[in-house]
Amino acid sequence: MTAPAPKACATCGRGIAPSEVYYRFSLVLQVEQDMIGTLGGGGSEEELAAVMKQLEESPESPQELEEQVHWERGGVVCTACRSLVVRTLTPKPAAAGPH
């Protein structure tokens, strides 16, 4: 029987021993926009060509542009970092109005 592969916390980088508890995560960020027809008059060929030219002249690499549309990561976090990750990704409660 082989030992499990060593794991490291994605947040702090600390090695996680096989006997320690850890938390697995998967995070996907995908671009969305709630506006319809953002290219103006419905996406004419001229407007599409202008967008393509803007992308071609962009200083960002194709990989950087792709990661702006879809970015995906997974890994593990240690017990100590779990609360940091949860706190970071949990929405703040809405402020209560006057009573």
Low-confidence segments, given as residue ranges, are none
What is the count of β-strands?
4
Strand content: 15-25%
Range of helix content: 25-40%
Distance N to C terminus:
63 Å
Structure report:
The protein is an alpha+beta fold and 99 residues long. It has helices at 45-56, 62-69, 79-89; strands at 7-8, 15-16, 22-30, 70-78.
Characterize this entry briefly.
The protein has 99 residues and is of the alpha+beta class. Helix content is 31%, strand content 22%.
List the helices and strands and how they pair.
Blueprint: E1 7-8, E2 15-16, E3 22-30, H1 45-56, H2 62-69, E4 70-78, H3 79-89
Antiparallel strand pairs: 1-2, 3-4
Features:
99 residues; alpha+beta; two-stranded antiparallel sheet; 4 strands; 22% strand; flat
